[in-house]
Each structure stands twice: as C-alpha cells, then as structure tokens.
Design a protein that fits this description.
Blueprint: H1 2-5, H2 29-39, E1 47-57, E2 60-70, E3 76-86, H3 90-98, E4 111-112, E5 118-121, E6 125-133, H4 135-138, E7 143-151, H5 157-177
Antiparallel strand pairs: 1-2, 2-3, 3-7, 4-5, 5-6, 6-7
C-alpha cells in the first residue's frame, strides 16, 4: 500500500548465488561462491549454464569448457571459457585472447599478474595461459590451456582482484580435469 501511495516500484526479491548451482568448471564452488557474490550485479535470480568436454588422450589435448551466468533478463552477467591450444608464444596468445572478449573496451586496459605462462586482467576480464601437456608426454608439440573470465558489465579495481581469484580457481580445475602433466603455477591461490 505504501509503495502504491508513493508511486514506488514494488520491491523485487534479491536472488541468491547458490553454491550447488555454480558451474563446476569454475573450480571450488565454495571459493567461486564468495567471488560471484561480490562481482555479480543484483538480480532476482541467477542461472548457470556449464559445459565441459574432452581431455588428454594419446592423440593430444582436446579440452574445452564454457560457463555462462545470466540473470532474470537472460543477459550474460559472466562468461568463462577454457580451451586447449597448441603451443604458441605468450604474445601471440595475448593477441588472440583479446579477440574472444565480449567487448573490446574490456580488454583495453589489461595488466599482467603472476600466473601460468602469461596472465592479464582488467576490471572486466581476466585470462591465464597455462602450460599443460609437455612435448615428451604428448610425443608431439606442447599443448596449453587458455582460460578467460569476463563480466558482462563495467568493473573496476575491486572486480579485477576478484576476477583474478575466479580465473585462478577455474585454472586449478581445468589443469586437473584436462590431465595436464606440466606444473601449475598459480601464486597465492
């Protein structure tokens, strides 16, 4: 009645980021829940869509995962993707990973952070290039994993640090799930 009298919009209930629903590909659900509660915008509901395929076999590495988080309007709130790549330089990977972003503006101000062979982040985007399968193990070229996590909205310094935590968490999961034989370098996990 009071909302009607003052011509206020009815209150919407705040959705809860439920750890049981969080994408497996984001790694530890407990750690991911804390980060997602900090970086996702307020919505009345959240939906998590996760797909994981492939892994390491005798022919090489074919690993891929995709996690999309949407809100009540089905607008992408967070996008996380992981895929295996044949060995390439860090500079070549960085040029390529920038093209995968939802928005060019989100990757203009990337700065490095310590993880994997190469790692960069902004307030909207974090990516890690992880050595995975060695030439010796694979009996051909080395394979790496490219992982990126991206917010669907503008972020800042606080979201940058949280996206880095989420990317490291997802990298830990991908490294194990893909069956990598090279050591994982993720300082201060």
């Amino acid at each position: 009645m009071c909302a009607y009298a003052f011509k206020l919009h009815p209150f919407k209930s705040q959705g809860e980021v439920n750890s049981a629903e969080i994408c497996q590909s984001l790694g530890s659900r407990a750690k991911s829940t804390v980060v997602l509660r900090m970086v996702l915008p307020s919505r009345s509901s959240y939906s998590f869509d996760d797909s994981i395929s492939g892994g390491h076999d005798t022919t090489g590495l074919s690993y891929r995962s995709m996690c999309q988080v949407t809100g009540d309007s089905n607008k992408i709130l967070l996008n996380a993707r992981t895929e295996s790549l044949a060995s390439e330089s860090g500079a070549s990977w960085l040029k390529w990973v920038k093209t995968t972003a939802l928005s060019d503006g989100f990757v203009r101000s990337l700065t490095s952070f310590p993880a994997g062979a190469e790692a960069v982040a902004s307030g909207n985007f974090a990516a890690i290039f992880i050595p995975c399968i060695s030439e010796v193990e694979n009996r051909s070229q080395q394979y790496n994993i490219s992982l990126s996590v991206e917010l669907g909205r503008p972020g800042g310094d606080s979201t940058r640090s949280e996206l880095i935590k989420l990317a490291k968490n997802a990298a830990n999961f991908a490294h194990g799930k893909a069956g990598c034989d090279m050591p994982l370098e993720l300082p201060n996990r």
